[in-house]
Design a protein that fits this description.
mainly alpha
Length: 98
């Protein structure tokens, strides 16, 4: 789906970069489509480094969601595992409690 959209926008982007984009956006295809539109303005091949520099991670929203579940007494194991998979440090999660 994203590969087709990139082709429609005349964006040269490899599979590794697309996977990185999806990972950073936590699988949100709609956000990925918007990011591809922004990348079309570069008028050059999009690299993994471009994704790292220019795409805002969905992790802060996940931390907020995790904290809401924590304070509401809901199950937090799954969201905590997901945050760690996304590269969030356990100590920074604890610091977010302040």
């Amino acid at each position: 789906m994203l590969e087709v959209r990139a082709k429609d926008l005349n964006i040269s982007i490899n599979r590794e970069a697309l996977l990185k984009l999806i990972h950073i956006l936590d699988g949100d295809i709609d956000l990925a489509m918007v990011e591809l539109q922004k990348f079309s303005l570069l008028n050059r091949a999009v690299t993994v480094n471009d994704i790292d520099r220019l795409v805002y991670s969905a992790t802060p929203f996940r931390v907020e969601s995790f904290l809401t579940k924590l304070f509401n007494g809901e199950d937090i194991i799954s969201p905590l595992k997901r945050l760690i998979e996304l590269g969030e440090d356990e100590y920074s999660i604890v610091r977010s409690l302040r």
